[in-house]
């Protein structure tokens, strides 16, 4: 809404002065966030992604992703993978690999079928989901492998240097699942309110944006059926400031 009152004069018929007031003119609303803080949004899959840089083995990483309503990331198309490779992930925490090469657990496993002359096998999606998920190419085998293991877990290696990232350079590793590594979680986009709280499906909330007087319903991660409250300017106050996060709350700036 537009809280301040504009007025102006114009000459009407017969020379009389006509005074117009515009109060609370509705403005277009743009929603700026579809993911919680720390997550990256990709419109192509309506998903959110986050790299956890604390080292965990594959199974612990799976549980961490599940606790935030997600799973270890799988990819549906090359464009999605390129989006992941191009991101500037927060790299301040302790990591377990070289700074210029980042490896993340992702949601694939390599099943070994033959150990004779060379390792042979095939990739599988660790947790069955979309049939559109693509499988990685032949992997590089990690150094922590054991002869007893018949299942290895996938690590996606991307590069820290921007020029390498933006060219899409990467590698796939099949590694011992009990090695510790950073990991990449993926979850559906969600509704995030103006105070950065996650909103469950079907609930009312005020979306992130520039209108704290908006009330919407969360549906499939999008704000829908929005209703706006219109606020009157504070009485007896010429200069004032509106609170960006509280509806119809003003601070008078008059002396």
Automatic annotation (TrEMBL):
Please indicate which superkingdom the organism of origin belongs to. Answer: Eukaryota
- What InterPro entries does its record include? C-type_lectin-like (IPR001304), C-type_lectin-like/link_sf (IPR016186), CTDL_fold (IPR016187), DGCR2-like_CTLD (IPR034010), IDD (IPR042378), VWF_dom (IPR001007)
Q: Which CDD domains match?
A: CLECT_DGCR2_like
Extract the SUPFAM superfamilies matched here. C-type lectin-like
Residue ranges occupied by any C-type lectin domain in the UniProt entry: 44-186
The record ties this protein, via Gene3D superfamilies, to:
Mannose-Binding Protein A, subunit A
**GO cellular component terms given for this protein:** membrane
Q: Which Pfam families does the record associate with it?
A: Lectin_C (PF00059)
Q: What is this protein called?
A: IDD protein
Recall the taxonomic lineage recorded for the source organism: Eukaryota, Metazoa, Chordata, Craniata, Vertebrata
Q: Which gene encodes it?
A: Dgcr2
């Amino acid at each position: 809404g537009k809280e301040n009152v504009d007025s102006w004069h114009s000459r009407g018929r017969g020379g009389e002065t006509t005074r117009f007031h515009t109060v609370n003119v509705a403005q277009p609303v743009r929603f700026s966030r579809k993911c919680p803080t720390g997550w990256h949004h990709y419109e192509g899959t309506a998903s959110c992604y986050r790299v956890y840089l604390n080292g965990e083995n594959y199974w612990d990483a799976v549980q961490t992703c599940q606790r935030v309503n997600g799973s270890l990331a799988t990819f549906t198309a090359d464009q999605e993978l390129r989006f992941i490779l191009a991101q500037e992930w927060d790299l301040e925490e302790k990591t377990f690999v070289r700074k210029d090469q980042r490896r993340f657990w992702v949601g694939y496993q390599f099943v070994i079928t033959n150990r004779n002359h060379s390792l042979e096998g095939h990739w599988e999606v660790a947790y069955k989901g979309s049939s559109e998920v693509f499988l990685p190419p032949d992997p590089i085998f990690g150094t922590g492998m054991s002869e007893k293991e018949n299942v290895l877990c996938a690590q996606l290696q991307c590069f820290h240097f921007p020029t390498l990232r933006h060219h899409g350079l990467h590698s796939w590793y099949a590694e011992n699942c009990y090695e510790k590594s950073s990991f990449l979680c993926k979850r559906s986009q969600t509704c995030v309110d103006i105070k950065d709280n996650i909103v469950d499906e079907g609930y009312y909330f005020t979306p992130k944006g520039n209108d704290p007087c908006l009330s919407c319903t969360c549906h499939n991660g999008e704000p829908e059926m929005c209703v706006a409250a219109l606020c009157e300017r504070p009485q007896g106050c010429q200069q004032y400031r509106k609170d960006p996060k509280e509806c119809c709350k003003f601070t008078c700036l008059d002396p």
